[in-house]
Amino acid sequence: MWTWFYKLASPPAVFRTAGRLAPWFLGAAALAIAYGTVDGLAFAPPDYQQGDAFRIVYVHAPSAWLSLFAYVSMALAGGIALVWRIKVGHAVAAAAAPIGASFTVLALVTGSLWGRPMWGTYWAWDPRLTSELILLFLYAGVMSLRGAFEEAARGDRAAALLAVVGVVNVPIIHYSVQWWNSLHQGATVAKIGKPAMAPSMLWPLLAMLLGFMLFYGGVLCMRLRGEVLSRERQAAWVRELMQARSER
Amino acid sequence: MSATFWAMGGYARFVWPCFGLAALVFAWNLWSARRHYAAARLKVERALAMSASEGA
Model ipTM? Predict the structure, then answer.
């Protein structure tokens, strides 16, 4: 089993697999996001309290979920690289960080634009908002730390360690609305039992969630190819690959 | 499209920037990933050219 795992995680195998998967992920993401956007903006009914402002949920909630998902995947990849010394783990973590950071910014800005008409302010030092902002700082820290060392391997290890330690912030973000008094609304989709949303509003949201996740998969594959190529530029397989491509 | 749709019940100035920004984030991610790959490829090509010139 371990031999199979190591073979699958070998840089050439990852490079090839990521190249094959990226267009499929991105194609499926485009379909899901197109459906979610059209249905969410044009056909879902307005909310009885928030009116049409509730439609911000279709970009805010998926970007917030993705910011957490990308962080967990980055920490997991970093953790695997630290424990089992699988080099590709560091490449995955390095590829995931800027994507996760960009969606954290999106979650914060769209949340702020939603907060203005609903709470009367763009920003409040609320537990959910503050912990999400800390997530952005963690992403920034991980990316800076990776580039802060002359020896790339040391940067990778330090960044992976910070990513793993920072995972503690993920449950804090998720449960902040339950643990403390918060302006932010509680869970709607992930509620145990029945989601607190009408199906006509829920379907486009689920499509957007799926679309954002697929987009993450696609862009991660694209970035990962660049990351693997850059890290393995002295390897024989990269030279062979480039020579084969230049001969074509 | 009707004016009512674009007005978003009076919340247009909050709703549309969110979707616009989301489109920008998607576009930036795609552009950045392509650029990252192109830069990595250039690095490899330079390394190959250097080793070829050293060998000659």
Answer: 0.91
Tell me the two tokens of residue A242: 């480039």
Cβ contact, residue pair A229, B40, below 8 Å: yes
- The tens digit of pLDDT for each residue in A210-223 reads 999 999 999 999 99
CA distance B3 to chain A (A): 12
Q: How many CA atoms lie within 13 A of A235 on its CB side?
A: 13
In chain A, domain spans: 15-247
| Of A52, A99, A243, Cβ closest to residue B9 | A52
Instruction: Please state the pTM of the whole predicted model.
Output: 0.92
Please report, for residues A118, A161, A239, the alpha-carbon distance to residue A35 in angstroms, rounded to integers and kept in the order given: 27, 39, 42
Parent domain of B29? 21-56
Give the chain B residue whose CA is nearest to the CA of A42.
Answer: B5
Q: How many domains does chain B have?
A: 1
Task: Give the residue numbers in B contacting A (CB under 8 Å), as ranges.
Answer: 5, 8-11, 14-15, 17-19, 21-22, 25-26, 28-30, 32-34, 36-41, 43-45, 47-48
User: For A59-117, how does the pLDDT look when each residue is reduced to its tens digit (9 = 90+)?
Assistant: 999 999 999 999 999 999 999 999 988 889 999 999 999 999 999 999 999 999 999 99
Any idea which architecture A15-247 has in CATH? Up-down Bundle (1.20)
Asked if residues A231 and A224 have their Cβ atoms less than 8 Å apart, the reply is no
A117/B14 Cβ within 8 A: yes
Longest pairwise C-alpha distance within chain A: 64
